[in-house]
Structures are given as structure tokens and as C-alpha cells.
Batch of 2 targets.
Target 1
Amino acid sequence: MTTKEHPSLWGFGTTKTFKIPIEHLDFKYIKKCSDVKHLEKILCVLRSGEEGYYPELTEFCEKRLQGLAPASRALRKDKPAATASSFTAEEWEKIDGDIKSWVSEIKKEENKMYFSETETFPATEDNLPPVRGSNSCLHVGKEKYSKSRPAKKKIPRDYAEWDKFDVEKECLKIDEDYKEKIVVDNKAHLSKIEKRIDTTGLNEKEKDFLATREREKGNEAFNSGDYEEAVMYYTRSISALPTVAAYNNRAQAEIKLQNWNSAFQDCEKVLELEPGNIKALLRRATTYKHQNKLQEAIEDLSKVLDAEPDNDLAKKTLSEVERDLKNSEPASKTETKGKRMVIQEVENSEDEGGKDDGGKHEDGSGDDKPAEPHAMGNIQKKLTGKAEGGKRQARGAPRRGRAAGAGADKRGRPRASATAGSGAKGHPGSGPDAGDPPAPPPAAPAGPAGLKTQGNELFKGGQFAEAAGKYSAAIAQLEPGGSESADDLSILYSNRAACYLKEGNCSGCIQDCNRALELHPFSMKPLLRRAMAYETLEQYGKAYVDYKTVLQMDCGVQLANDSINRITRILMELDGPNWREKLSPIPAVPTSAPLGGWRPAAETTSNQVGDSSSHHQLGVTDEKMFKALKEEGNQCVKDKNYKDAVSKYSECLKINNKECAIYTNRALCYLKLCQFEEAKQDCDQALQIDDGNMKAYYRRALAHKGLKNYQKSLTDLNKVLLLDPNIAEAKMELEEITRFLNIKDNTASFNKEKERRKIEIQEVNESNEEEPERPSMEVSAACLASEKGDKSNWLPEYSEKLQISKPNNAYEFGQVINAINTRKDKEACAHLLAITAPEDLPMLLSNKLEGDTFLLLIQSLKNDLIVKDPSLVYQHLLYLSKAERFKMMLTLISKGQKEQIEQLFDDLSDTPNNHFTLEDIQALKRQYEL
Amino acid sequence: MLSGAHLALSELTKSNLLGRLRAEYGKREGQTVSNVWSLVSRLVFCRGLGGVVAGGEIGWAMSAFEKPQIIAHIQKGLNYTVFDCKWVPCSAKFVTMGNFARGTGVIQLYEIQHGDLKLLREIEKAKPIKCGTFGAASLQQRYLATGDFGGNLHIWNLEAPETPVYSVKGHKEIINTIDGIGGLGIGEGAPEIVTGSRDGTVKVWDPRQKHDPVANMEAVQGENKRDCWTVAFGNAYNQEERVVCAGYDNGDIKLFDLRNMSLRWETNIKNGVCSLEFDRKDISMNKLVATSLEGKFHVFDMRTQHPTKGFASVSEKAHKSTVWQVRHLPQNRELFLTAGGAGSLHLWKYEYPIQRSKKDSEGVEMGVAGSVSLLQNVTLSTQPISSLDWSPDKRGLCICSSFDQTVRVLIVTKLHKI
């Protein structure tokens, strides 16, 4: 700016620049002015000094502007760089010290690097992509910039080259370019980012460096709201070097993407690496919350609050969860809840039998209702188990121990949605349940009931001592009542026992359990709690007896099963092979006992059902009958006696024809009995009662399939998947049905043949899936075999229920093996082995070789493959012995399994072959430590 | 006389200055201008030496320490015109590159030792060295690639600098700018170097291939050749993808896709493009900052490309004069520092909009630009700051060189809190 050499052209009225009236350069005006632009101009004029210097006015104007628009550009001033003197001594020391320490550190690093540098050209060059080829000419099209081949002269094209010009090709290229310009895929990069980083040949430091950088990229992506990309980079970071931070961050990103399951798994990983990690706990709580496992969420949150009582986020989430919990409570009282429970039991027991794959699915199907935290937990565990496949188990004992501990812990907490939850699952566990009593008798005084509720609340909140106090008070009130309130008292004692157990007061717990059992012999929870207390006190014998008793009542109690296994081992170690003799006799449980005693939840259920379906006129006897019949029916299903089960269920329905679960259960039996029409009708009935019942849909789909109504089956499966897209079985069925439909279309001309064939295939499928040992299988298999002759081109596709294609990597292989494993389908496994190259086996198994997989492989080699191709068997065995965890495996397998392997080897040596000699086999046998 | 010359120079602004500088360098290998420069700045520098070198006794009490502070930690006067400075990765060392008064080129290697700079090595070469990069070097080797006034691309082993490891006469005229990728673990794929020159071409080199570039982007014959002032690699998130962005004296910005060998996008920001940088080279293009001769810079959101509208951008008038350089913080891509013609440094933060993309009237995705906010600004010198480099290893450590023949080590505090 020039100085005021020239008189202002605008006269006195305005300033030269901006033409601002002179009057505006005034304190009063500036004070009032709220026009930022105008103020900026005034400031500019004032600063320029063209109207004279007014330092105070300038400062005032600045302040005013600062107040109005702190980000105003006019306020930016040239500032000198900060120096040591602009900080307090302390701050400066910190800054300076930081730099100094970094300098010395990096120098050390550098020296190390310098000395460790051995080869002049590091091997990293090996895996570099090739030099950008001479074919890479820049194609700028119509733009000003032309391409020129770098290998040639820079003149774009000479005449000779034009001769070679392929118009079509160039046009195509331009078209492509054009297309690319038009359809810009702005998300394309996501799929193209490598998920893994090749870290071969890197030392820990470099890996750490890489991992950190990838994590930073992830953080940046996260901060910009690009969560998918963030997940990608965290995954890369983890692939370079798994760190707590990366897992934790990925969990957070997954939460943002609402991938609760992945987030949950990441949290688990963090907690495995670093138990008690606050962030991971918080995040796991969030995943629990969204998966409606409110109880677990509360548990995690209270852990966080124990460590950091002021954690606001935890507090907030906790209050939210508790609110959700309250909201879900009424829901749990509705009839759906009750119905589901029952099914659960049937399925659970089937599951434990380890036979039925369908059961697993059914279990999952209960999972759509948010009011069912427990079932969710169940499916969750299963899904993760499945998804993670062998990995989880491979981690072995410590992990399992932890999980069991956690499980016990979970069970230890009362389910808020009361009642239903834990009772339903057949894990009455150790938590006191609000619904423990078979619906509080009206006669019961309000005081004790209220106290008990309070106690339950306190227990939920983790205040065990206070809860115990409440229960004690309730007991004190009820005590005089004597036998009338025996049931209630029993429950109160049982609940107090749970509190004591939590507190670690085992003897108190045992006493209470004893009292509870006196009042109510053979009730499950006190027994379980006493068992746990005994176990804690290392009185393993007594614990064993209690667990056994529990198992007599319900063999599906996972906790008891686990504990029995554990204790058996301990007892064997302690007392040697004759440990059983030292045990006190296990009391025989009267058959009627469980009904009254340990399934109060079921009772509540039917009460509730009654309420909702105008069923409350039902006499008590009827109700009991109903339950008893249902129990028997379930038992029959467990025993695979489907006919009897059907009759039991039918009787049930005579008493109460509004019970959805009975229909679905009976449908299952009909399915097993191949009475598809009846199964379908039952499902229809069930759906009439509850049109969101996934099990009914699924079973009807199966029934439709059996009836060859593939289209309808398809519709039903779609409905199932609509309700819960995560049900693998339904997906599998869906695929299969779709295939059927396609083939039906294709082979429409072979109508006659088709029909017959279909039925048989159907049966094979059914039997494969549901019950491999059914006799009809042989028949159908025989049919299949005979048919293979004429229509071998498409039959094999059917013969394996599983679609087995050649696995390309360890992951695919693991998936197939898992699927086979759940079915125990040795044929499929044999097929898999037949199509898998033996030398790939170690790669495919990677570190996932496990007892059951191993056994399965051996069995299928022994049963199926040895006859067909002994050399393949030999090859497989050879390469199996080179798999990663093979040695470990050998130490873990049992005698019986060893014998099987031995047999296989014997068979192998018996079959003459020129691909291998007896010496080879002997050598291999040594590998197998035989 | 002294202050007069000084004034005259600092008043030389904008295109005038840049244009002259570049023109002079091109024709007479920079002697005239750089001589004036070195003379003037040396005098200026000597005058202010007492106060400045010791870390500055400037009595400037700042209270608001919530903001990041830019500290001039160490300053060192040089006896040559410095054009570029770069940290040696994994060390407390850096190199400065420039032009001796006698018309030769120089590379100096400095190390931070006890709060001061120690000259470890000085290498003199025939031609003034304009720019350099470690971007294509492995962490073990740390070879420096340089471009000089004669249009030569060299790669030096600083331990044995007598003969270059790689040498090619890449351009007919001065190499204004250079960038590297694939080294230092940054960017997937092969190590490559891109150079931009006054002869209007942008060439990509692979150190494994002698003599010829692996890609060459140049104007069609007959068209005006524009002076390429800046180049930058980006989008190298996997082995195949890679782009080069080039900025020209007429304000053109061109984005070349090296995978398809196509021009992916171009725009014009009206004024000469002095510096371009992607916020990260090794991720899918996220942001690109372009600084201009007229004191503005533009931030493009490179995630969402609209078929016709291209990329969304936000611009900010940052400095009163040319913005010579922009450099993103290696540890946080949303922060970047711009270096201005009047010796000022501005630290910026980019803030994303709530939605980074939206659908236009035809339902095609288009990007939405965010906003930039100034976190801190300082004025270090009266002369333009010609180059700027963040330490890849230490957050907040930075070097800059300016035309007053000074190299400065800066510390920016509180960066981790943003």
C-alpha cells in the first residue's frame, strides 16, 4: 500500500480503499457493528495506516472481530516461531528432552541397522513386481498429451507404426477409457487392497513398523468415517503383527459397521491377549448389547466400572442396557418366549447327542427374537465355533478353560429377562432366577417376594453380599410358614447359595444348597451350585456325585458335562484307576422328580401360554399331564424313538392344542419318519399360532422338499433367511433346493425317471443330514449305486449332500472339513480326500489339524478310499504326517484311535501296490509312532 | 543499500519471482539470480545471526498453548542457495541440495547432534541440484535420487557419492521436481521415480531399468509445452494401482493413471501449480493438496470422482504470496503444512464433511469437500521457504530451507492431540 501522498479522491466521506465512511472508524460504530465483512475491511484500513495510525482502535477492532468471527482471515497475523522462551521451563524441558532422546534412540537404531546390513542387495527385490513394461504407453486420447512409447523415440508415431495401427483395438480402448470415465467406481479400491502383508524375511522390528503404519492408516480411515477401509487396514496390521491395539481398533470399526459378531471376536482376541482391557470390555459390552445379550453386557460394563468408576461411556451404556433389560422383561413374559424354550430343550438334547445337524439350526432359529438373550448366546457360541472352525479348539486347553470359566460366570448371573432364560436353556446354572418359583403363589406374603426381587436385582448388579442379605431377610420371613412355603424357601436358599458362591463362601453355599435340597429334593440349581462349591473346595468326589445327579435329571447341562469331564480327570489323577470305588453312591433320581423340581421355567411358560391363549381354565392335573407328556416326548426324540414321540406329542395336543412348540416338535418327528404331509400340517398349525416361528418355516421347507414341492420349500427357506440370514443350514438347503429346481427344469424330458430318482435322492439327503445310521440309507445308497451306472454324469452331484469342490486354500478346506465334521459324513470326506492332491494336504490343513478332523480323515481313508486307491491313501498318510500339528496330534489321540490307524496301516500293507513298498509303510508307521 | 536490496527482493512476489527464477535457471543455469540471492541473503543472515542462531531471544510470550506451536529449534546458515531438503529415513540426518555461487551443485548431509547441526558430508557435483527424494529407496540402502539443472536424474549412495548408482539424462532442461515411491515401505509395488521438467515432460523411472523411462507423459507435438513444476505419486494401495499427478505453470493439474496409462482427470486452478501432494501415497487416493502461485491452495477430495465434475475441492487463501510447498504430516494425513513466499509457515487441518459423497440430480455419486482450518502460523524469514520435509520417524519434527540460505529444524508440538 502506498502512503497518503495523494489526496483521497472520494473526499472526506470515505476511506480510499473499500470506500468506508470515515465515521465508521470509530469505537462506537465498531462496537455496534456486527457485519464481519465490514469489520474486516475497517481493520484492513486501520492496519494499513492510510487514514492514520490508531493502535488502540485497531486493537479494539481486532477484539470485536475476534468475538464475532474467531476464524476470520483478517485476524491472522504473522507470528515469529516459538522458541524455548515461549514455554515454561517444564514444557520446554519436555519438548527438548523428547527430541534429544529420540535423536539418541534413532542413532542407535541406525547403527544397528548399519551393522546388520550384510548383503548389498537385499532379498526384498525378489518379490517386487516387474519393471513397468514397454507396453505401458500413456494413452491420453483426445487430450493434449499424447502417448509415446518409452522404449521408442519420443515422437508419438512414425509412419511405419501407423501401418500397424489396429483401429478396432484402439477404438475399443478408447471406449473402455470412456466407460471408465463414465462409470467411476469409487469403492473399487476396497476390494483391491491386499488383506495380508507379506512379512517373510522381516524381523520383528520391521513387522512392528509395518503393523504400526497400517494401523495408523486404519485410524485415519476410521477418523474420516471410512470404516470398511479402516477394517481393511487393521486387518493388514494384524496380518503383519497381531497387536492389542489393532484388534481393539478393528472391533471399534466393526461396531461402526454393525458387524457385531466380528467385533465381538476381536474383543475376545484382545481380552485373550490382555485380560481386563477396558476398551475391549466396553466394546464387547456394546456388541452384547446389540446382540441382546444384555446380561453379559452388564457384566462387562460392571467390570469396566470396577476398574474405572468414572468411565462415563460405561455408565451411559450401562444405563441404556438396563433400560433395554427392563423393556425386554415384559416381552419375555409373552407367550413366544415360553414356547421357544421348550423347543430349545428338545434341540439342546439332540445337540448334545452330537448327531443332528438340523438341531443346531433349529437352535439358531430361536435367535430372531430379541427377547431371548439366552438363545442368542447359544447360537452365538455355535456360530463362532463354526466360523472359527478348528482355530478356536486348536488353541487348546487354556482357552477352553477360560471359556468354561466365563461360561460359568455368565450362568452365575441371573437372567434379567428372568426366568425363561436360564431355565429354558437347560442350564439352570447358579444364578438365582426371579422365576425360580413356579409363579409366586398368591398366598406368599408380599414382603418376601419383594425382598427376593430386590435380592435378584442386587445380584444382577453384582452386589452379592447385599443380595444375600435380602434373601436372608426373605427367608427369615418365610421360615415360620413351614412347609407351605417350602418351594419358595427352597428357591431363596438356592439363590442365597448363589450369592455365597459368588462371594467365595463355599461352605455357606453348601449349607444353603443342603437346606434347599431338603425342602425340595432333586432340584437342579441347588445341586449344581453345591457341586460347584464342592469343586471349589476341592471335594471332587462330592462334586462329582452332584454333577452326576444333575446329569441324571438332564444330560444336556453343558456345565455339568464339562465339569464331570474335568473332575473325572482330576479324580483319576488323585485316586488312580479305581477312583470310582471311593465315591459315595450317586442317588437315583426318581423319574418324576425333575418335573416338579427343576423345570419351574417350563411351568411358568405354560402358565403364560395359558394366559395368552385363554387356557387358564386348565386344571392343574392337565397341566402336569401336559408337561409330563411333553417331557416324555422329548425324551423319545432324544432316544430317536420318533413314533412314540409323535404319540406323546399328540396326546399333549389333546390337552393343549395351542402350544406351538409341540407342533414343531411333532413336525420334526414326522420329518424323521418321512411323513412329510403330516409334518407339513403340523408346521402349518404352528405357523397359525405363531407366524414368525422360524423352526416351523424351516421344517415346513423340509417337508415341502420331501413332498417335492420345491417351489414352496424355497419360499419357506427364504422366509427363514429373512428372519435370520445367518442360518447356515437354511442356506445350504436353499442351495440344494435351487439346484433341484434347476435340474428339474433341465431334465424335464426324463419325467418318468426323474420322479423315482428324486425320491430316493431325497432320502439319501435326509438320512445324510439327519441321521446317518438309518437303515434306509443302505437301500437308497444301493439305489444310487445302481443308478450311477446309467446317469453318472449328474448323479454324483447328488450323492454327496455337501457340495464339495476342490478347496483352493486352507480356509475353504477348513470350511468343508467343518461341514463334514458336523455331519460325520465319511463318504463326503473320502470324496474330499479323493479330489485333494495329497501334497497339498499340509498346506490345506495348515495349523488346524485336530483330533476329530484327524480321526475323520483316518476313518474315511480306512473305510472308503483304501479299496479304491491304496496309493492315494498312502500318499495322504505320508503328507498328513507332514502337517503342522501332526506330532502334537499323535500325543493327544486315544488308544482306540491309535488302533484304527494301525488297522489302516495293516490294510495298507495287505493291499499290494507298486507305488509304495512295505518298507515305505514301515517308515511311515514309525512316523505315526506305531 | 543492504536493506534496499532486501526489500526489493522481498517485494518480488508471485509469478514475477517464480517466473523469473525459473526462466533464469533455465537459461543461464541460475547463476545470475542465485548469485543475487546468495549475496543478499547472506548479508541479511549475518546481520541477524547473533539473535537467531542461539534459538532466538524473541520475547514473545504466548499463552494459548492448546494450539500446536511451531518452534524454530535449530537454524543453520549455508553458503549456497538451497533448493531442497529431505530427511534421511530412520535417522536424525537430513540432506540439503542446492547451488554454489560458482555454479556447481551441492549435497550436504547434516545430523542433529546435541541440539545443533553437524555437517557430516559435503558432495559437490557439476550441475546445481534442484530436487531430491528417498521415496524409491529401500530402508537398508537409503539412496538419494536427485534431479539437476541439466535434466539429469541421478541416484546417489551417500556413503560412496563419487559416482552415481544410477544416472540418466532424462530431460532436455532442468528437472524441477521429483518424487519417489515403492521404497521405505511406502506404497506397494515397484520402486519408481517420477520427474517433471521445464521441457514439459513428466517421466517415470524404474531404477532397475537404465536409460529409458518406464512411462513418459508429454504434450502432443505442436502444442505449447508447459513447464512442469511439481509431480506427486499416489494411489499406490496395491501392486498394480498407481497414479502420478503433475502440476504445470499454467495452472493445469493432470492426474495420470499409470496402470491404465491414461489421463484420469485434469483441471486448471488458474495459477501456476507450485506444489502437489497426496495426503498418503500408499492408500487409495484420499486427498490431494495443490498450492498455487497466487497464495491459494486447493484441497481435492479424491475419493469420489464424478464423471463430469471430477473431484470436489475446497480452496483457501493462505498466504499473501506464492505457496511454495505443501507437506502432509506422515503420522496424520489430515494435517499439512504450507510454506509461503514471505517466509511463513501455516499448519492446516482438513475436516471432513459429514457425508463425503452425495448423489447428484442424476443419481451419480459426487464428492463433497470438507473444510480447512488454520491451526498455527509463523513467519520464519522474509524470504520464500523453498522446501519443507516432515521427519518420517518423529512426529512433529520438520526441516525447511529458505532462500535466505538457511536451513531450519522445526518442532511442531501437540500434534498428537489433534
Target 2
Amino acid sequence: MEDQKLPCVLIDCIGEKHGVYEEHVEFLKEHFCLITMKEYIENKKILGKKIRAIYMWYHKPVINEELLQSLPNLKIVASSGVGIDHLDLNLLSRYGVKVSNTPFIVSTDTADLGMALMLASSRRLVEGYQMAVSPDTEYFPANWLGDEVSGATLGIIGMGTIGYKVAERAKAFEMKILYHNRKQRNKEEENAVGAIYCKKIDDLLRQSDFVMLAVNLTPQTHKLIGKRELQLMKPTATLINISRGLVVEQDDLVEALQNKVIKAAALDVTYPEPLPRDHPLLKMENVLITPHIGSATKKTRHLMMENMTESIQAALTSLPIPHEVLL
Amino acid sequence: MLRSKAFNLLKSIHLMSGQPKLAYKGIHPVIASHGHHSHRSVGYRQRYKTGAGSAGGRTLSAALTKAMSEKELPGLLILDIGGTYGVQENIVALLKKHFCLITMKEFLENKKEMSKKIQSVFVSECRPTVDQELLESLPNLKVIGNSGVGVDHLNLKMISNFGVKVTNTPHAVADSTADIGMALMLASARRLVEGSQIAISPHTKYFAVDWLGVEVTRATLGIIGMGRIGYKVAQRARAFEMKILYHNRKQRRKEEEQAVGAHYCEKMEDLLQQSDFVMLVVNLTPENHKMIGKKELGLMKPTATLINIGRGALIDQDALVEALQNNVIRAAALDVTYPEPLPRDHPLLKLNNIIITPHIGTATVQAIQMMAEEAIANMLAVLNGQPIPSEVFPK
């Protein structure tokens, strides 16, 4: 009886490798009647009509036309994270289904990770750790050096919420900050972080010691960084990617790293994720890869869940949806 | 800026010495050194090019200049050139501009002649060892110029008894060490090392979505030791909207506190109880050996991380092992241990909630250069009887 009062929301599964977190279930069940994909498939006829929202946690469940056709009362897909490149917005629009994401709460964690990658790469932290713990280490060599982050030049490509937070952090390291963006930020915003606008991406690439990608993935940013852009970078420069793997032409990156066209790369995102186990990027000493952990903190994931709950509730009560993604 | 400080130190020594023939009047070391790998922008380097009036020997032949200057240059003892523990080539070139270099090997092979020439010793990464025997054999030794700020490896009292001064390089180390403190905090919080292993492991088939770290932004950072380095850490942490607590021998001025939003904790216990990250940034003295032991670790939050960029001996390592094994604290990140490296069977090496780096606080091309410059400026000041920028005194 109680369940019927709560709106029915489709999720992929609970726990396991990509499911909704066990610790989040209690909160969700206070607001929704959760239906897993398994339960739905076993009882499509009845449950199909009941489902009014999809809680999409880390790109699952996968939404296709077939699913949309069998969910006549679907009002909203709430997607976790800020990226929506995995969704077919046109398709959803045709079925009159709204979409929401969780843009701002991921910003500080992602900016923090960008800084972490820049520092770890520049100071050779992972390599240093391996030396410190290796059973073969007898002494720490004197000549073993990294490069300084403080005082260096950081070029931020994509000065949205995340890019700006990176700039705020980098400023405290007395970095010179250049940025490239679809449109220039206003003077106060620039002055607050000491950021200099580069209308042409080439100017940013030529001058930066660290190039950080903080754009979202769109047809315009797809393979934004390819052979040409890598060659414009300094041979002593490092590429850091906290956006999407597809913003970089990966084969060109491999070649650039192999030929020392650039010094190093630090990637939280690749295409695909994970990379095939025989991919050249996995073997390169001057490459640091992390498993897409930009927003991977307990607090942020909890906030994401709360955000998504809010968005679903708003959609089902015909109120303005916080963080609605419009076409 | 700290880079201009080193340059000004050398410049001011020149102006005060009134000895234009001395070779140290020459071109700024940044330009003079070979194989300089700095990625600083060209504009920055150009600012430091000296004018036409410098390098007094330009009008004479190179060989004659060399002979003349070698005669006048004070003798500097170093461990070795290159090799495992020796001074790097580009630093050697820098030192040669101001000193006549004598390696330990050369000294030992010819003690009689060399011992009188040596007026200074350049100590880098604790080498060469300065013991009683060495001090007794160097009658004209005036100064030990340490590259780096920590001098816990030097017996200050003994050295002072020989009438020899000791100098260190507090300015040159500050930025790079603060950076490593931040790097360790971020890497530990976000499980960066573990994550990178998963990303490249041959066994990885997918990335688990419930694999999480802890936040740095808006967390509470407790800095123990708010000297030059600690303050730079605070400046950086503030940009991450961290709440900053600090414990120090004495409180900083109000303006300094406000500039970084730091709150003074007179009692270290208060800092330990409230912090999500505790960072040790003190120098090692006889008084603060094992300042972090079982009691202190017990006061920390079970979700807290201990970061050490001071000296290994500040922590009771056995107590730390126990605390990490029993999840008394969440994790530790250490750039320094005691000894370095740790014995290969040490329990710290086997824990999965610890990051250890091989004492790389100043291991950057830029810092190594600046430390040498600062050490040179200090040693020359001693030899020329001028005010010494960074002398270290025994207690």
C-alpha cells in the first residue's frame, strides 16, 4: 500500500560493479518505489506503465528507443554527473522526456583532481612511490628530479565552472594562467584569478607548461587536441585531461608522447574506459592514468544522489527542474 | 619572488665586496649554467640577463682569465662530481664560477696541499659527512654551506667549536616543498596511486563506480609548523577553500593569519582533534623527536590523513604502523622517513593506506638550481665578511 503512493523509478541494479550504492538506497526508498531492470523485464506489462522516471547512475540503465516505447509515463531521466554526451537528447526530446544532470556539485572535486594530476605528473609522484617501496631500492639517487608547478604557466581549455575552479587553485601556486573558451569571461572574473584570455587556442598551446582540458564533449570539442595542437605545445609541456577521452585524438597523443613532442600526459579520462589492456598508453612511463575518478568522493556522490532525487521530484510534480539539460 | 631573491643576494655581495676582479661578479648563474632544463618562459630568463659591464674578464683571453680567476677563487670541498651521490653537472658549472672545486677524492689523495685551500664545504643531500676528523684537517675552513633547509644531519655545536659557520637555504626550498605537501595530500585523499595502478593493471576489466576517495575542498587542514614552508602550504590550501588550523612555537601576526584564514591552536591536541588532514612542516630538533606518537595519532580523527614533509624522526614510526593497521587514522603520506630509504622489510612498505615518496620535497630542476645559488650567496657572504643571509646557530 505504502509503495503505491511513491512514484516508481527505474534503476539498473543495486550494488555490484556499476549499480546504485547500497548506502544510498535507504534515502532513495524514502522518496521512490525503486524498480530494477531485472524486475522490470520480468514484469514489463504492469511495471512499464508505472515507471515515471529513470535514475541513471553512471550511464546505466542504457536508454534506447525500445525502452522509451515501453515506458509511456516516463517524464524524466535524471543522469549522474555533469557530462551528458552518453545521452541521445534528440531521441528523448521526441518522446517528451526531460533530462537533468548534476553540474555544479562535481566541480570542486574535478578541479581538485586536475590539480592532483598536474602535481603528481610534474613531481613524478607515482614513479617516486614505486622507488620508495620497491624491494630493489638500495638508495635514493641524487639526480632524480621533477619539474616545479609553482610559478609555471597553466593553460586552461574550457573555462566553465570546473575550469574556473582550477584557475582559483592554480593562482595560489603563483602560476601564470592562460585560458581559452568559447567566450571571454568578464574582467572581474579574470582579475580574480589573474587569468589571461587567449582567443586563439594556438597562443595558449605555445606558451603553456601545463595544458588542462576542462571542456564538455560536444561535436565542436570532439578531437579538439590532435597532432597539430600537440605540435604547437612546448616539448617540455604536460597535457592533463579531466574532460572526456574523445576531446583528444588518442592515436596522435600516443605518437606525440613516443616522439617526445610533448613531455608527459595525465589523463583521468580516456576512450574507451578502461583502455584495452594492450593499449600503448598503459605502458608509457611519462603517462599517468586514473580511472575516471573526477567526482569520486563519498560526499559528492551523496550530493549527486540528492540532486537527482530533487530533479525527479520536481519533474513529477510539474515544478521547474533544477539542472535541467535543454537541447 | 623567491627567484629574484637569490639573484639579488649574489648581486648585493658584488656591490659590497669592492673587489671587481673576483669572478662571481659575472653573469647570472641561470644563464651561465649548462643544460638548464627550466621551463620558465623566455621572458622570465631575459629579465636576468646582465648588462655590458659585467664579467670583468671579457677583454682578456679566456685562458688567462681562467688562470687568474682560479688562483683567486676560494677552495670549496664537495663530495663528488656526478655519480650516485655527487653534485650534478650544471650545479658544478655554477659552483665553478665562484669557487675552486675540490672533490673528496682529490682532497684525500693530496691532503697536505688541499687542506689549506679549502675554505668552504658544499653539503648536498647530507654529503659529504662533516665529522670531527674532517674539521680537524681543514684549518682554513670558514663555512659549511648546506643545500636545503634542514640541518639535523650536522652537529652544529661541534662545527661551531671549530669556529666554522653553517648556512642553509630556507628561501629556495619553500615553494617546491609546499607543492609536495599539497601533492601528497591530494594524492592520498583521492587515492591517486591506487587509481593509477587500477587504470593500467592487466587484470582490470571495468572501473568500479563505488571506488571513492575523500574530499580536499572545504576539509580542515591542520598545519604543524607555520614557518616559511607551512605558510606557503596555507596559501595553497586556502584556494581549496580549506579550513586552516595551525600550531607553531609562536603565533603569527593577525594580518598573516587573516591573509590565509588560519586559526592558531595553542595546544597541538586541539589541532589534531579537528583536522581532516594533519601536515608536519617543522624542522627536526632534539625537542620534537617523535612528536607524533601513539597518543597524538589516537587524538586524530579516524577519517584523518597524516602528511609528513618535515623529517622522518618527527613521527614514532612503530606507532604509525599500528595506527594505520588498526584504522586509528585513515591514511598517511610521507615524503620523509627514518631512515631513508626504509629497510625493505619495514612494515610501512606493506600497508595499502600509505603513500611514501623518496624525499623529493626539493627535487625539481628549479629548486636544485636555486638552492645552489642561495648556498653560494651565503658562503661568499661568510668568506667576504658580509652579513650572512641564512646562518644557522647551535641552540
